[in-house]
Each structure stands twice: as C-alpha cells, then as structure tokens.
Amino acid sequence: AQKVTQAQTEISVVEKEDVTLDCVYETRDTTYYLFWYKQPPSGELVFLIRRNSFDEQNEISGRYSWNFQKSTSSFNFTITASQVVDSAVYFCALSEAMVIKAAGNKLTFGGGTRVLVKP
Amino acid sequence: EPEVTQTPSHQVTQMGQEVILRCVPISNHLYFYWYRQILGQKVEFLVSFYNNEISEKSEIFDDQFSVERPDGSNFTLKIRSTKLEDSAMYFCATRAGTQETQYFGPGTRLLVL
C-alpha cells in the first residue's frame, strides 16, 4: 500500500525566509509520480510540481525547488524568499505510474503542512 | 487556462437526504476522480472513473455513493442517504490521457445536519 508522511504539521516563518517542507513516501511500485499541491485559505487544491520516479534530477522553478532522493524515499520542497501569499497548506502526494494502471492512478496524500508566512 | 468547475460551492442538507455534486471536467480530459477532505484532515481518494465505468474505489465509497457521467460533460457524485460524517469538502479532479497530473476543481463544501 502507498503511504505519504509529512512530519511537519505547521511551519511559521517571517517573510523572505526560506521554507523547506519534508515528505517521505512508501510504495512497492518501481515507477511512480510525486506531486506537491498547495491549498490556500480559499480551499482549492493547486498543482505545483510533479516528479517521475525515474528522474532524480532536482530543479528550480521560480521560487520553488525540490529535492527528490529515491534512496531515502524523500521528496522535499523549498520555497525561497517566502511571501505572505505563500501562506497555505501544502500537500505531498504519490500516484502509481499511469502505464501500470492506466485507469486508476489515484493520488495518495500526506497529512499536509500548514505554512504561515508573517510580514 | 481551462479549469475544472464544480457546483454547488456549498450545500447544506439534512441527514438522510440525497445530494448530487456536479463537476465539469476540462474538455479533453478522460479520467475523472472524486476525493474528499474532512475539515482539517488529509485529502482522501473516493473513486476513479474512466470510459463510463468505475476504475477503482476506496473503502469509503460504499453503496451510498455512486458516480456517473450522464450527458458526456458533467461528472456527478451522488450520496443517496447522507450521514453526519459525510460532511466534508468534496473535490473533483480530472486528467488528460497523456498526462499524469490531476487538476482539481474548487470543491463543494457539504454540511450534513
């Protein structure tokens, strides 16, 4: 069974500080996808990034960056120079590879980390 | 940019009543999902739907729940006889056939009294 753990329940920072969110996952699949979603106070779920299990290259996209380490089953996410608008709950999620279960592909979410950015 | 839409945004109902939650997927998307989020908790998978049939369902998705795509556009979730514990935010998500990413609608907040 798949499992995603976000050990940090809440992080509070001052604007312009960097924030790193931890995510650890468990899966028996050899091919899978990892995601980060943002849930602002308005409640919607906004897709941020996706990473394939066979691609461990870490990237930066604007103020977002991520560190995927298959050896430790971790997929951490960093917001650089945080802003008040970054205040939200951030969810890490895992899905099986589309190729294996083309129709299923459900997302398994972690418990979320609430980020509060103070001015 | 295309979006998933959901109606209603909020619904209040009495225990035992039937509710239907509606979702309009992004136009070229073929795979549809329902998730729910009880207040303050994690997002949980309910059901996935493809080619007019259920692909996978969770143990939450019991006989009180059903899904259908009646007119080729709307994707609906019906709860036949609501219980207090059905109070939650319900999210519809859809994805294209060639992509792994699911895009979520804004959610329907259901309150069962």
Polypeptide structure, described:
The complex is a heterodimer of chains A (119) and B (113). Chain A has 119 residues and is an all-beta fold. In chain A, 0% of the residues lie in helices and 51% in strands. In chain A, the strands form three sheets. In chain A, strands 2, 5, 6, 10, 11 and 12 form a six-stranded mixed beta sheet that branches. Chain A has a four-stranded antiparallel beta sheet with strand order 3-9-8-7, with no helix packed on it. In chain A, a hairpin with a 2-residue loop joins strand 7 and strand 8. Chain B is mainly beta and 113 residues long. In chain B, strands 2, 4, 5, 6, 9, 10 and 11 form a seven-stranded mixed beta sheet that branches. A four-stranded antiparallel beta sheet of chain B has the order 1-3-8-7, with no helix packed on it. The radius of gyration of chain B is 13 Å and the shape is globular. At the A-B interface, strand 5, strand 6, strand 10 and strand 11 of A face strand 4, strand 5, strand 9 and strand 10 of B.
Order of helices and strands of chain B: EEEEEEEEEEE
Low-confidence stretches of chain B: none
Distance between the termini of chain A: 41 Å
Structural class from helices and strands of chain A? mainly beta
Radius of gyration of chain B, rounded?
13 Å
Range of strand content of chain B: over 45%
Mean pLDDT of chain B: 93
Question: Beta fraction of the residues of chain A?
Answer: over 45%
Features:
heterodimer, A: 119 residues, mainly beta, four-stranded antiparallel β-sheet, 12 strands, B: 113 residues, 0% helix
List the helices and strands and how they pair.
The complex is a heterodimer of chains A (119) and B (113).
Chain A (H helix, E strand, L loop, with lengths): L2 E3 L4 E5 L4 E3 L2 E3 L5 E8 L6 E7 L7 E2 L2 E6 L4 E6 L8 E9 L10 E3 L3 E6 L1
Parallel strand pairs in A: 2-12
Antiparallel strand pairs in A: 1-4, 3-9, 5-6, 5-10, 7-8, 8-9, 10-11, 10-12
Chain B lengths: L4 E3 L2 E4 L5 E6 L6 E7 L5 E8 L2 E5 L7 E4 L6 E5 L8 E8 L7 E2 L3 E5 L1
Parallel strand pairs in B: 2-11
Antiparallel strand pairs in B: 1-3, 3-8, 4-5, 4-9, 5-6, 7-8, 9-10, 9-11
